[in-house]
Design goal:
globular; 3 strands
């Protein structure tokens, strides 16, 4: 019998708690960074539901975590 690896799927979108876990900060700090323009904007906002793309957050971190304005310009220039 072969062993089957059990893996936890990586979510495509995360809420503020998930963003905090990825960045090592708390939920309140996530919204503080967002308000200060230091975090990319969420990709989904529907009422009280707010979600960020894990892929975008990883790319943003790899780019040095620039301000939201600089990140937007970087993304536009890449496309």
């Amino acid at each position: 019998m072969t062993e089957q690896a059990t893996t936890t799927p990586v979510p495509l979108l995360v809420d503020a708690v998930g963003v905090g876990k990825l960045l090592g900060i708390g939920r309140t700090s996530v919204f503080s960074l967002l308000s200060a323009g230091r975090l990319p904007p969420p990709v989904l906002k529907a009422g009280r539901i707010v979600r960020w793309s894990v892929e975008e957050l990883r790319a943003w971190c790899s780019a040095g975590a620039p301000s939201a304005d600089v990140w937007r310009t970087m993304r536009e220039n890449r496309q």
